[in-house]
């Protein structure tokens, strides 16, 4: 029995609020239950130094949590003077996940930075961030298309979405919330495309090592869940008045 | 004529959304027009080292802006490795403003940290932050009162709210938005209590120096505006179901 | 009764020692009683990156205290690895105050940095710094005029000076020393020009909020005091052998 | 055809040099071909603050590369003033991998830090580091057992080793060297125990997304390779004169 | 011929101004020609963590230069976020030199920090700093003796002073100023006690290596010069009204 | 009697392992007994900003210790966020020592960075580092000569090597190991050329000040020892197959 009463293959309520931010070229407040992440995509007409004159652009991500997004207040990273290892790990993952479906040549010599800031955390912030970041990125490209800068669908080759699965109380479950996450025996994050290709897999045994069979069950749960997330992304984007 | 079409003594639409954050003991999303600041009050059963065994508590504030809260994306302070001078100046102001109406002995040996994070900026973030931070702090004290820890009204002696005034296109106006702020000749921030006492005054000539008469006009505008803000704080707090 | 025995409207003995530093284009050791600040103005033939090719220059300030300028030794900021919030607040104030009377176009594409280093502190370091920094800046411009680089009086449009006033033991007093400053109910800093225009006002209630009437009394005290400081600046500059 | 001429399931020559460091309680220079990592295990009779009086110990890891371990010299992280995101990601992975096979209660209130410093890099530094770190940790526990502090086999419940696999030029291969790594379409790291349980899986599509079938092939290759590595660990530990 | 017209064995005019700082337990503004260093000795009733309960105290030094102490303005170290290598090297040298003549047991469990801040630089700042720091330290111990805390002469066993010598334009000269220092072939700093014992020797060939004979000439020059400096220290301390 | 049983003028066993690193243009693992330092020389076709278009190159050094190179584990400097004072002092010394025998014009507009990383420490790491760094630098220049970039012997004008001497238990001894170093009364480091010229002298009284006679004894010991080190450098370089 899951603490939330959900079935093992049941994700939390997921929603996307496009155009949350007035200034950003694309933005989306994504919610996976009580996990709320604000994703903004910012376009800049410059590339990192190591990409100059290379004929292609760059997509990168930064991740942060508000100090009281969590149950106990955490120290503000700006005040601590550096981003922690967890933060850096997550923002590198988000960036890689987005780039897996972007044609950087088609983007041209520009950079899009997707900021994912957790307003409230209840487990699964990185997977919510990836799923919402894709929507913000898509709206940024739509903004650019409206200005004849790119063809959005040429730059963004496919959807990308992510979900966590894990073994909790002996059962394979999808979309762990904080209570489950902190007690899970195994915790895995999956990033996949709309076509079902795998972009990233990260699985960790928190307690006992897990078997190949267990891992395949998690992978199967994730495949179904990500399919549903991609459908939701499609649906929210079909509302042409929203961004 | 103001860019927004407002009258010289007309503030933007102001709203408070209490209980925005699930985890914080008190929280409030305050909006002054397109300026949106999330304020969370976090209670900790400890005091700073220099206050140990002094028989009183501490109230402090931290301030931050999401990188794309602004028209152009700003560098994330956590990534830059330090908080800028402007950030430090503002968070010190918020902390002093709140402490002006707090009885630290009545609080007991505890610390309340109010985080003010700007989700979207359109001028006046520091004054919105102070005004919203007071609501979050009040709800935190209410949470404590419900647990017999303190009497909220003994700890919090009065309201505190803040507004900016300035001279724009030769006219004294209240509650400058970004367009006005960046073109104003003089810019001043006022922090006052519910009883009308002055807690902080900060006035800066951006262009020509200003006269005593001009300053008194701004002070008068501010007094009226802050009176309205205090009424709004009272009204939103009277909704006992909200926090 | 003030601890120093001064009258309420009596400033401490003020002196300026021009040419204190052999290397700087302009320098001045300013003393407000036991508060001693060394101000040096350094000319550089370059501007900050964001001003390149903008056809105008920049004037900025930095502030520091020697570790044992104060009653108890403070940690050296260079060793702590960052400038504290107070330091940043003060150096931003000094820079703004100077720029209020500088014609940056007339300066040309150059930067003048005024370093204000507190050798000994006894209250009022920021106001002494502003008052002395103006003298160092004026001498730097005189140095430039002697080399046909600028007309000093075209670049520097007016005097600027500053003083603190506050409510101490129920009375409005000018130029608070450390004993008064640490016990004052209200503390305000005023920056004004030679023509009497206001450049900056910063007033803070340390204890009880203050009233508009109280504030006007402080403003009036400050106006008289700053007038005297400007006369002293004029007098010290009339000694053409000094710099 | 692999650049090194190896078969698809052929690892590089692997060796362990125990007791490389005179001072450390356990140490091992591990080589996977031209990738050389010095692992030292340091025992300290203290635990991190958050573990005090919790009745158990801690095992952690740090990772670093000498500046010229790589083809081009990289900036020294100590000089840059912080550890990069990649470094933090890797050292967190090594620590988790070791803790997966350690009984922290049996260790007692002590901390063992395993430093993994790359003397020379040619791909696969993190997997070599994990594999060698286990040997250094085992020898540290042997050192403790010789002093009647613990039973080494009670603290260390199983072997742990790691290998990378990837899709290079369309083929699934094991133990990628730098040339393969930088051209691979998919790159995955696997950490497993002596009993064959999975501790960590990290798979990344560098180019096209990969399929579940492809991933299973990599997992199978890894299982065989890690089995061999565990046998080598056993063999090198059977030389009782070495540490 | 030396740029200053001095003879090869002629030091610059040296002066000590005791009691320069109102707050410090001991202070001295030392001048070697145009090199001016403010030395303050601060007493604290605590020791560094690694000395706790060891029954003895500590004497340490910090060194800094005001940004415009030099011909060109240097970046402020507090703003750069760290002390440079040269700064650290010098402050370590000053601390070691002072400790060479201090009986740390006789000091008791206290720390004295001597801050040496260069107000104006013209070569030889480290040797001037050591020579002046000794005077500040002596006055601090006198302050303590007046309060029956220690016997100053039991804590401070001997004088210590320092001078630079070098080979300039083929000649061995003492007390190099900036012009000489930047052109010297060899530059050496000597720290000696009142009894003539050597505490520190640092010699560097800036151009051609130097011979043992050349080095002995420098050492001999230094011995005579330091003897004179010690006499000056004695003379300035004999003025019992000064500190 | 020395703890190691060595005679007073007997150095530890010294060895050089050239070509230790596959990637560096020159490299050498130097051992002075149990002190082991890996030196790598890295060539870059760029110079520091302040040398641009000056028609000459630069040679610099960086120094580091692995955390467990020492008896107790030290904190990793990359994790601490800065290089300590000792590290900076040593790397500046190594750089100066190498440059004393390099013709920077003959090098051309290039930079060679020699990294000296201590794998194991037992006293004398800086002198071992200098002695080994020279070998790595020579091999780097040989690599360049093989590519017709420079004439190695025109760039490198002489050998340079270093040794420590000190007064231990009342006797002057050469090449102190850790046990001697931590108990020595006086500790001095000498850097000399193949021709016997002195490049650097650093002598420190750890306890009692030392006399000129004592210092000359140390200098004489050092001269003999460095002569032997230079012979060893010549011998190891004569093996043309090694680098």
Automatic annotation (TrEMBL), chains A, B, C, D, E, F:
Per the UniProt entry, the Enzyme Commission number(s) are 2.7.7.56
Q: What is the lineage of its organism?
A: Bacteria, Pseudomonadati, Pseudomonadota, Alphaproteobacteria, Hyphomicrobiales
Tell me, how does this one assemble? Homohexameric ring arranged as a trimer of dimers.
UniProt domain Exoribonuclease phosphorolytic: residue ranges? 10-140, 160-222
Q: What does this protein do?
A: Phosphorolytic 3'-5' exoribonuclease that plays an important role in tRNA 3'-end maturation. Removes nucleotide residues following the 3'-CCA terminus of tRNAs; can also add nucleotides to the ends of RNA molecules by using nucleoside diphosphates as substrates, but this may not be physiologically important. Probably plays a role in initiation of 16S rRNA degradation (leading to ribosome degradation) during starvation.
List, alphabetically, the InterPro entries matched: ExoRNase_PH_dom1, ExoRNase_PH_dom2, RNase_PH, RNase_PH_bac-type, RNase_PH_CS
Is Nucleotidyltransferase included in the keywords of this UniProt record?
yes
Encoding gene, per UniProt annotation: rph
Transmembrane region(s): none
According to its UniProt record, this protein's enzyme class is transferase
- According to UniProt, the name of this protein is Ribonuclease PH
Query: Which species does this protein come from?
Result: Pseudohoeflea coraliihabitans
Q: Does the keyword NAD apply?
A: no
The reactions it catalyses are: tRNA(n+1) + phosphate = tRNA(n) + a ribonucleoside 5'-diphosphate
Family membership noted in the UniProt record: Belongs to the RNase PH family.
Among CDD domains, the record links this protein to: RNase_PH_bact
């Amino acid at each position: 029995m899951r603490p939330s009463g959900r079935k093992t293959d049941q994700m939390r309520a997921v929603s996307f609020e496009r155009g949350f931010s007035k200034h950003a070229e694309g933005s989306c407040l994504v919610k996976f239950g009580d996990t709320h992440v604000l994703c903004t995509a910012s376009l800049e007409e410059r590339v990192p130094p190591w990409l100059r004159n290379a004929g292609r652009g760059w997509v990168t991500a930064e991740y942060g949590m508000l100090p009281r997004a969590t149950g106990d207040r955490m120290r503000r990273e700006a005040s601590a003077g550096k981003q922690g290892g967890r933060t850096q790990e997550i923002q590198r993952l988000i960036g890689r996940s987005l780039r897996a479906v972007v044609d950087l040549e088609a983007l041209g010599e520009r950079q899009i930075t997707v900021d994912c800031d957790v307003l409230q955390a209840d487990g699964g912030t990185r997977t919510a961030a990836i799923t919402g970041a894709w929507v913000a990125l898509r709206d940024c490209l739509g903004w650019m298309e409206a200005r004849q800068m790119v063809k959005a669908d040429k730059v963004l080759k496919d959807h990308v979405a992510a979900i966590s699965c894990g073994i909790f109380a002996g059962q394979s479950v999808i979309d762990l919330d904080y209570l489950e996450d902190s007690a899970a025996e195994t915790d895995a994050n999956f990033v996949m495309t709309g076509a079902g290709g795998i972009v990233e897999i990260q699985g960790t045994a928190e307690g006992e090592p897990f078997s190949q069979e267990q891992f395949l069950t998690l992978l199967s749960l994730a495949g179904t869940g990500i399919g549903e997330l991609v459908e939701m992304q499609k649906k929210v984007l079909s509302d042409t008045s929203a961004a």
